[in-house]
Fold these 2 entries.
Entry 1:
Amino acid sequence: IGMDIAEQTLVQHFAGGEHLIRAADKSFWKYTGTHWERATDEQVKKLILELVQQNVDPSLISYSHAADQALSLLKAKQAKEGDPLRFTKEPKPIINVINGELSVDGNGNVELREHRADSFLTYCLDVKYDPDATCPIYDEALLGIFSNAKSDSEESRAIPVEMSRHWNEFMGYAIQPHRDIPSFWLLRGGGDNGKTMLIK
């Protein structure tokens, strides 16, 4: 009975088992359609119990015992080898957003792909990727912060637009998964000129 209930639970709620794993942290993880999130034993057992009540004759075996059997079997059956959720490994070069997985290659180029369970991502940012989106408030703030930027050389005086471009290049590099160019960046200037706001 326990095995039948376990199988029914996987079919009805977890794409036949493709959307439920028992990971290295000894927790269940379920796939939501965009990412994996932890599911407690009690949450899984509740789904099991619903099926037990629909399919088990309580005169043959108690609901509680049948549910415990099925839960125990699911823990073993869905145990995943290795570390697919990357608890101890470097994260994959993917930014997970509402409308897909933004894959970033070694040169910073991006490609939006459909969500996939086998990417094993454990988060999804609450934003849609739009390559044509503009950021007028951010752009205006940058120009304002860099409006007093100066250079030692009159000929190479840094203007706000150039400084903004430079800052965006650095930030784009900083958020990439691979940063092979050793660099150290220092925000310099007197107080109350936008350094902290820029970081925020």
Entry 2:
Amino acid sequence: MVGHALVTITVQAKVASHLLATRPEFADEALTRISAAGTAALDELRGIVGVLREVPGDGTPMSPGPRLEDVGTLVADARAAGTAVSITLTGFPVPDPVPDSVQVAAYRHVQEALTNVRRHAASTPAEVTVAIDEQEVRVRVRNGPGGEVRPLPPGHGTGLLGLRERAGILGGTLTAGTSVTVKAITD
């Protein structure tokens, strides 16, 4: 979540800088998004620190993290940042047998994919599809080719590796290209 928020902040800061120079009347919107993303990152960090500080048995409920129902928020955030995104959900509301770990992983996959769309192909529309049945959760994020591919600085660009590892831990698979497809076992 924090990494996603930082990417959003970075992209919106570049947009705000450009708008201040060319269309200052629109810069306020980008700055508002930067503020919202920063607040979300701080909230997430507070939650992480809170979990790390929890003492077992103190009665404090631990949140399982984001859920599949929260994917719509990711789409709304991407739209607010200027990316055209459509969403198709099948099998909702999420049935009980879908473990929290699968729900968090699926959410994170959509989040990473939309971050990559914004980073590498922001001018192309994206499609998010989440399909749930008794045996698996399928997540697909598709987009068209982006513009110029910019190499990432050293230490960046491990998002797909992390996604592949997370899917594998849950017994799933990840396929990446101009779309990312993830399948995870629900039972």
